What does this fold into?
Amino acid sequence: MKRIVVLLLALFTAICMLAGCGTENASQGNTSSTRVVTDIDGTEVTIPKDIKQVADLWHANNQVVLMLGGADTLVSTTKNVQGLPWFAKVYPRIKEIPAPVKGTDVQMEEIQKLNPQVVLASNKNQIEMARKAGLPAVRVNFADYEGLRKTVAITADVLGGKAIDISKQYLAYLDGNVKLAEEKTKHLSDAERPTVLHIVGGDNLLKVDGDKTIINEWIRYAGGKNAITTEGPQIVVTIEEIIKADPDIIIIGGTQAQKGIDQMMNDPQWASLKAVRNHRVYRNPVGTFNWDRYSAESALQILWAGQIIQPQLFGDINLVKETQDFYKNF
It folds into this structure.
């Protein structure tokens, strides 16, 4: 009897050990060093589980990475981003990060030397170049608020960790501002909505933003209507078309906006416009990126534009506090 008990105990111990090993092996089998994210085109991209080195080739998305708390992962940025004074004020290290990207031109060999774990880009050619070089590449891109929401979520998914929670907080803030603006302006008739001309930058006053753009969306949210009905961003028009549109308000984007305003004031053709005569020409704010386009700061743009376009409806908003809180929180 004693020998039988000993044998049973030995058998039980062996079974437990085998079961333990099986559990451990199963656990190890489920642990992976990679994960899959889906980019803006719906393409599934396998990337490392823990992301610590990111090459971001799209100027605007560097700002999204910054907002999501992931700027310390950047091993590559762009010269355009390095030229934005407020970005450097918020994150001085941006000046020290290699920037083998100017416009859409990229030196992929230099990117490879930086050993990024993942490449973020909006340009499809850059994405293909990165993938051919053996680098996981995630495409991020947007031209409207829905695309902005998706790009923030995708970038957060790539960065992981705290970026996920920050993205949720930001998207709630963005949606809150959209809802607030829509509530304030939903009763306006077409006649009560002033026409707004949005000029891309002060270097070329004939390059404007039309319908089906994020610019058109915030103009509508803010209680206005676009003076340009042609579809598309950054389209070139004639001075005759602008004179015919005769906008109530002119907003100029970019860092050279004042240059454009000065040119308007000294040109008889521009001086004849209603907006110029009534002193309703404005410089669009530029922060860590241009508020008016491809920017997470477009959440603030809605409120700023509301105070410009419909000051009586948006006068209760303390825009200084909103801006300070935004930069503090995000």
User: Anything to note?
Assistant: The CA atoms of residues 45 and 272 lie 54 Å apart.
